[in-house]
Amino acid sequence: MKNKIGFNLVFAFLAFPIGLALFREFDFESFTFRKTALGFLYLITFIAVIVLMLKKNKKSTEQ
């Protein structure tokens, strides 16, 4: 049985507003965050939520 990448809908709903906030916080003219600490916090949280959203499901192997 192949290990498939799981998709968690709860984390997907969390990733959407965090991604929007990260997008709003980033200044595309100077390629910096408007508020540096808040921007890095959004970025770290967004990456963590994406990793948790696409994490493999651990199921017991039944033979």
Automatic annotation (TrEMBL):
The chain crosses the membrane at residues 37-54. It comes from the Bacteria. Keywords: Membrane, Transmembrane, Transmembrane helix. This is Uncharacterized protein. It comes from Pedobacter cryotolerans.
